[in-house]
TrEMBL record:
Domain of life, source organism: Eukaryota
Function: Catalyzes the cleavage of glutathione into 5-oxo-L-proline and a Cys-Gly dipeptide. Acts specifically on glutathione, but not on other gamma-glutamyl peptides.
Record protein name field: Gamma-glutamylcyclotransferase
Top EC class of this enzyme: lyase
Known catalytic reactions: glutathione = L-cysteinylglycine + 5-oxo-L-proline
Family the UniProt entry places it in: Belongs to the gamma-glutamylcyclotransferase family. ChaC subfamily.
Length: 179
């Protein structure tokens, strides 16, 4: 079984796997809509880069149980099979992979907003796995280092907006401590 990760799974899968491949799926774009972490939105002209993990034998039930808890425990997630295209030049046919996608029924689903508004929400948001700033910056770093040829305007625009806001917050906190 292959599992496609396009958010925090790219750097922290949290389950044992046999192998991993960087690549993309077509027909979806990545959006910071549920709780200001990412989900996929159907978009026939887009492709989303991430990592596919191969799980075998005893890894299969353990990884699916973990992902069902991590991704779907609150409800509002769909699981789909997608065609994953490995980045490797000698890759054969696309691989069928399982992917978890948050839906508008997800209790944390916030939907569309400007990049600046999303960045401002990310700054004040955190979850069980850490702060959303780390989530955004790690995802942007993954894209830069492993998929430099790929474009993700939404991701990089939010990163840029966040970086432009952060110095103001840092200065404000220092000013408050001095007074």
């Amino acid at each position: 079984v292959w599992i496609f990760g396009y958010g925090s799974l790219v750097w922290r899968p949290g389950f044992e796997f046999t192998s991993r491949k960087v690549g993309f799926i077509r027909g979806y774009s990545r959006r910071f809509w549920p709780g200001r972490v990412v989900t996929l939105l159907e978009d026939c002209a887009a492709c989303t880069w991430g990592v596919a993990y191969e799980v075998r034998g005893e890894q299969i039930p353990a990884s699916l149980e973990y992902l069902n808890m991590r991704e779907a425990v609150l409800g509002g997630y769909d699981t789909k099979l997608v065609k994953f295209h490995p980045q490797e030049k000698d890759a054969e046919e696309p691989i069928l992979a399982l992917v978890y996608i948050a839906t508008p029924q997800n209790p944390s689903y916030l939907g569309p907003a400007s990049e600046e508004d999303i960045a401002a929400q990310i700054i004040v948001s955190s979850g069980c796995a850490g702060h959303n700033i780390e989530y955004l910056l790690r995802l942007a770093d993954f894209m830069r280092y492993f998929c430099p040829q790929a474009e993700d305007k939404h991701l990089f625009s939010i990163e840029e907006a966040l970086i432009s806001i952060l110095p103001c917050l840092y200065y404000t906190e220092e000013s408050l401590e001095e007074t």
